[in-house]
């Protein structure tokens, strides 16, 4: 692992790092915020998964998570959203290929060799972060848009590895959306049965979540028809899943929405991880 | 004035606007954060002046000021750092020309026609903001680096227009620094007597400030020799100027430093404006 940069932030350290990923078969960049409490001993981890077109950097600079993580004593990990590099398949569209990994393990050409963000986040990067930073085994996960989809699906499929989950404007029902069908078809093939493991609404119906779930959604979000929060909220209620779905009047899909509620989400995770 | 964008943020509105500036002779872009309290009636204004290479956008997205402004009921204005456009003089260097207005009124060619950021901020943009937004006559000013220099010099020269002042890692003594001598020579000419009005340390000695001043400086700032905080701090003490100078161990010159202390600065201004 190489250090790209480290900056003091709210008494802790905001770092950016690279490492050679076996899972993705390329160099990967990620960021970690370590709060001041990590100087005393290992702290719990909050994973933040970003949305389409994002890198490790968007949330690191714009979500305002560090202030709250420092207050509550959580590390925050900001992974990239896909493999990258010259040898990595790509597409001219913003919503397939680099910057759009969708947190799945691709099984179809040309994506299969590198597009393994599901395993990468769940296993390899978790091992790297655990080995290199003062963190412990308590992990929560959140994310925005495509990253909210990733957070919900990774958590529900792996309740032994996560203790808390939340999401900002997640893609809630991707098997019924152009943010989902297009990508699952490319990465996983046309057998829609293989898509169900990556649809938060379907996972909620099938498995649910051991704890409670927090979802914030902006009421003025310009992508409501693609995100399908109505399907997710309906399933939350129908399944009697413990949780909170908040429709936040006037907020859109931007980081001005995410950072407005970043404090609530960090506190939510801290309550459940400590 | 035209609206470029408006996003809900912490219960208020973060907007970006353009207008035709008579002072600068070009279209200018600026951002305004209006807190939720502005719905009830006019609120005080905090000006945030940015540093070299910045636009209205850097602090708006990375400084984390909105959360604190919403808590305390302050509007925040984020001006650009220079005139811009095809007809506006420029230089290949990052520290002269577009993105580097230094908050002076240029008197020398080729800068004189457009580079009038001192008058622009102090008069024209203040009038626009006062006319277009629910703000009142209570104004505070802060800024980072070149913008910290701007905040300190505008405030000390215009105590009737500002009620509070602070700065993040300001260029504290530009007449003795390559961040200052080069630009003042270009914009104002070689008569160094004309530079004194734009040097915070010299203004502190000559005029001082009617209230108290807050300055934060990162101890690991990579530009300490250009910023000269030692000269500013020494003059603060020598003049017995009411104020607080904080050397913040481990922090560098980045927005990770600025946003770590944004809450303190907003609270400082709110205490003095309300």
UniProtKB/TrEMBL annotation, chains A, B:
GO BP of this protein: formaldehyde catabolic process
UniProt-listed Pfam families: Esterase
Keywords (A to Z) from UniProt: Hydrolase, Serine esterase
InterPro entries in UniProt: AB_hydrolase_fold (IPR029058), Esterase-like (IPR000801), S-formylglutathione_hydrol (IPR014186)
Hydrolase listed as a keyword: yes
Origin superkingdom: Bacteria
An annotated GO cellular component: cytosol
Molecular function, one GO term: S-formylglutathione hydrolase activity
Catalytic residue list: 145 (charge relay system), 221 (charge relay system), 253 (charge relay system)
Keyword presence, Hydrolase: yes
Function: Serine hydrolase involved in the detoxification of formaldehyde.
Entry protein name: S-formylglutathione hydrolase
Organismal lineage: Bacteria, Pseudomonadati, Pseudomonadota, Alphaproteobacteria, Rhodobacterales
